[in-house]
Amino acid sequence: MSERIVTMINAEQIAARVKELGAEIAREYKDRNLVLIVVLKGSFVFAADLARAVDIPLRVDFLGVRSYGEGTETSGVVQITQDLSRPIAGEDVVIVEDIVDTGLTIAHLMDLFRTRAPRSVKVCALLHKPARAKVAVKVDYLGFTIDDKFVVGYGLDFAEKHRNLPFIGVVERT
Ligand code: 5GP
Question: pTM for the full model?
Answer without folding.
Answer: 0.94
